[in-house]
Amino acid sequence: QPPKKKVEAGKKPAKPRTPTLINGLTKDEMSKEQLEEHIVRLREELNREREERNYFQLERDKINSFWEVTVRKQEEVEAELKKVDKDMEEAEARHQLDVKVYKQKIKHLQHEHLNVITELKSDSLAASEVLEKEQEQLEAELRKTIRVDIQELNIEQFDKELELVCSTKRVSLYTNHRCHAAGVHWKDTLYSNAKKEQKSKQLELVNFLWDNKHLAEHISKIKEESDKIAMKLKHCLENKVILLKRKSLKDLKSEHEILEQKFSKLQLERDELCKAFTESAEEEQHKDMEVEKKLQALTESQERTEAQLSVVLSASNTDRTALSLITKKIEVVNTAIKILQHKINLISTVSSLFAS
Questions:
Q1: Lowest mean pLDDT across 11-20, 107-116, 117-126, 172-181
Q2: What pTM value is reported for the model?
Q3: Burial class, 280, CB count within 10 angstroms (exposed 0-12 / middle 13-18 / buried 19+)
Q4: Dist CA 136 CA 5 (whole Å)
Q5: What b/e readout covers 152-176, taking b as 16+ CB neighbours within 10 angstroms?
């Protein structure tokens, strides 16, 4: 017999393997038919596990693809929100600039209107003063002319009366002298001639007094006509002042109409600016509604995916690490969707404030 090998020091003998039990029996205890049935069951389980593995791989690919699509849509929505924010900032800046320009135009027009009114008032006062001075000068000249005419008429009348008295005295002296010189014979003849001459002189005196009366009446008529002329002149001057005032009023009305047209034009520009800003706000609201629809679709898709994922988690024992990773990704997507929803709500609030 060959010599027995000594057991090496420090090594323990191997433990006998525990036989695998199949349905309470070991492999050696099972018959051939039982082993074949067990092999068939194992193959069926293997096929089922493979199918489940393929199914979960497909679901994992779907979730990954959905994750990529969600991330891409999230980036698109964020880019669109940034664009909306930028458009709103530009629209607000344009609106503020238009409002500032409109206020400057209104202030400039008010200043011009006040300057025009002040100039017209000063021109009207100066014209009134000039017209009053001219009226006073004309009245003074007219009074002076009337006084000169009356003085000339009085001097002529006094000369005629004086001449008449002197001629009467001369006739009387001449008659007395003839009576004394020629004697009684010529007394009657001279007296009768003197009487005739005296009558004729008296007649001349009566005529002269009559003419003087007519002349006085004529002077009174001249005075009345002078007063009438002065009244007419006064009325003419007043009418001239009224015409100037009417002209000034007409100019003021035309200036007022021009200012009203400018103001209407500015109001129209302001209405157009408000309309453009309202349309821009409505357009931004429409874009916000579209973004909300997209977010709603993403939320519904994400909810469907979560439901599918919960079904998958409850139906199988998938790798917990992969599932936790997928769950974290879905939570990140949910957080991003909530942030976008909050931004959209803020944008809608700001748009409604600007629209009001």
A1: 11-20
A2: 0.33
A3: buried
A4: 164
A5: ebeeebeebeeebeeebeebeeebe
